[in-house]
Predict the 3D structure of the following.
Amino acid sequence: MSDTGFSEEEEARVAEKHRFPCPACGSDLRFSADKGDLVCDHCGHVEHVSAVGREQWDGALRELDYEAALRQQFPVEEVVEFKAAHCDSCGADIEMSQLEQAKECPFCASPIVTDTGAHRQLKPQALLPFRLDEKSAHQKMSDWLGRLWFAPNGLKEYARKGRRMTGIYVPYWTYDADTRSRYSGQRGDDYYTTRTRVVDGKTRTERVRKTRWRRVTGRVARDFDDVLVLASDSLPRDYTDALEPWDLGELVPYDPSYLAGYAAEGYSVELKPGFSIARQKMDAVIATDIRRDIGGDHQRISSVDTDVSGITFKHILLPIWMAAYKFRGTSYRFVVNARTGEVKGERPWSAWKIALAVLLGIVVAGGLLYLNQAQ
């Protein structure tokens, strides 16, 4: 038994799990986004992913019981072991192959070194395979860079030239829940009165809007399906939220073959904290339901008491292309939805370009004011 708590046989199995040697030449296979199968870049051999297990899936994902999972009551086959490297800069846990000892973090471009031993986590149940290849994602990056205003000189060329993109599977939780909410609040209905006043010696009549408020109580119900929560803190949530929607109807059963040639991040947000984030999303939807139920022109919500039942969840992986680059000592990142091509990124600003634009605006405004006064 090693100091990681796993036997030598278990550690060997973890190390070999995501290696896919080509049966024709022995080189590593990779999953091809355009072909949808494993391909060998060395000899061109194609290995069909469908032969690995897709036919064993009936097309319906099995939800796991949330309360049972919190009590660690799930089958051993739902647990997966993997070798990972932890990035001290951004906190990402990146899955690594047997031969890798060091690499660049795809999230922040910092150097990282593999941990000793293996990690144990809940196995992903499904994933969305890559649909965009690196060339297509790189074009999305170029298009995005080309639309930047007030970017420093040289940024676009620096980011374009030689910047390889990393295809990475990012961990997510999805939550289902049934909710029943009781609320109290106020409904505001607008009405109008007429008032007369004197302005510059002239009498004017005008309508004045007022609001009549009354107390209300009621109940709303909402059944939530696949509330999506990023199970990692390595990327800003506003980034990943901007990549939605995802075509979750195209999920396929988890199979390590889809990870061939790509990085994979282990989850760092555990199941219970993830559900707290999901509850925030649910509460926002419930508040919208309550306002709709109250009706009227305005609504005030005083209190909400929500009963939540039937909580289930899934652990899934979603694909993104990512580039992290350092420009003048600062790290910048952007991500591409590897299914739809949606882009979200960070960017530096050029202070002198902004100052010049402001100065030009002042000059133009001053010129227009001078012309108006001259007429």
